[in-house]
């Protein structure tokens, strides 16, 4: 059982490592690249997507409401509810924790004290095709930031709407709008660590 003091972190887990020979980029965009990865002694290409690591932040405000965002997701052809999330800007030297704080402010308009950002751990969101990591956090007692806070400057470019959910997490997970599997997984991670309750 995972205790409350131990966030999941298998980043350095090297059990049964696979020897890879090299990656070859076959297609690239500003957001992701598709590559072939070869294994040592095997000429067959394995196609993978190279995308940046990202963070997901389960956030709750001082009134006990869960803070989500609703945004258009063209890949699934509809608007969905999600936790605050986004890429870690490693090119600028950003850490996952800094990215979590930044995304929380930009997407929900809320911030927290330093000791109220709890790391839940990290894992691979899709071991079949993605080579990145997902860093998970719980933010407690989030408070609204001043509307003129410079950290909100780029928010008008985001096509999202804030959602404040005052029901239980179990009820939230049943909503058809809350449809992102990796975001469901973060709730399970927090619950197994005793950080949140579903009811």
Q: What does this protein structure show overall?
A:
By secondary structure, the protein is α+β, with helices and mostly antiparallel strands. It has two domains: 17-50, no CATH class; 52-192, Nucleoside Triphosphate Pyrophosphohydrolase (Alpha-Beta Complex), CATH 3.90.79.10. It has helices at residues 96-108, 169-174, 181-192, and strands spanning 8-9, 20-28, 33-39, 42-50, 54-61, 66-73, 78-82, 84-87, 110-111, 117-123, 134-144, 160-165. The strands form two sheets. Strands 1, 5, 6, 7, 8, 9, 10, 11 and 12 form a nine-stranded mixed beta sheet that branches. The chain has a three-stranded antiparallel beta sheet with strand order 2-3-4, with no helix packed on it. The chain is globular and about 55 Å long. Mean pLDDT is 88; it is low at 1-5. InterPro entries: NUDIX_hydrolase-like_dom_sf (IPR015797), NUDIX_hydrolase_dom (IPR000086). Belongs to the Nudix hydrolase family. NudK subfamily.
CA gyration radius, whole angstroms = 18 Å
Low-confidence stretches: 1-5
CATH superfamily of the largest domain: Nucleoside Triphosphate Pyrophosphohydrolase
Please, how many helices? 3
Largest sheet: 9 strands, mixed
Q: Any idea of the CATH class of the largest domain?
A: Alpha Beta
Structural class: alpha+beta
CATH architecture of the largest domain: Alpha-Beta Complex
Number of individual domains: 2
Strand content: 35-45%
Following the backbone from N to C, one meets helices and strands in this order, namely EEEEEEEEHEEEEHH
Spatial separation of the terminal alpha carbons:
20 Å
Tell me, what's the shape? globular
The helicity comes to: 10-25%
Query: What is the residue-mean pLDDT, rounded to a whole number?
Result: 88
Protein name: GDP-mannose pyrophosphatase
GO molecular function: hydrolase activity
InterPro entries: NUDIX_hydrolase-like_dom_sf, NUDIX_hydrolase_dom
Catalytic activity: GDP-alpha-D-mannose + H2O = alpha-D-mannose 1-phosphate + GMP + 2 H(+)
């Amino acid at each position: 059982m995972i205790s409350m003091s131990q966030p999941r972190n298998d980043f350095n887990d090297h059990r049964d490592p696979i020897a890879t020979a090299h990656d070859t980029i076959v297609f690239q965009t500003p957001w992701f690249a598709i590559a072939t990865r070869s294994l040592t002694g095997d000429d067959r290409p394995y196609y993978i997507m190279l995308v940046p690591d990202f963070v997901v932040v389960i956030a709750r405000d001082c009134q006990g409401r869960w803070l989500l965002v609703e945004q258009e997701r063209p890949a699934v052809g509809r608007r969905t509810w999600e936790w605050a999330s986004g890429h870690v800007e490693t090119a600028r030297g950003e850490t996952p924790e800094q990215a979590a704080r930044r995304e929380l402010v930009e997407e929900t308009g809320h911030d927290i004290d330093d000791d109220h950002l709890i790391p839940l751990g990290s894992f691979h969101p899709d071991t079949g095709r993605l080579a990145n990591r997902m860093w998970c956090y719980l933010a407690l007692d989030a408070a609204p930031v001043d509307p003129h806070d410079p950290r909100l400057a780029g928010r008008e470019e985001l096509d999202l709407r804030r959602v404040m959910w005052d029901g239980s997490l179990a009820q939230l997970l049943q909503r058809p709008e809350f449809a992102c599997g990796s975001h469901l997984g973060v709730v399970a991670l927090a619950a197994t660590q005793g950080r949140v309750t579903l009811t």
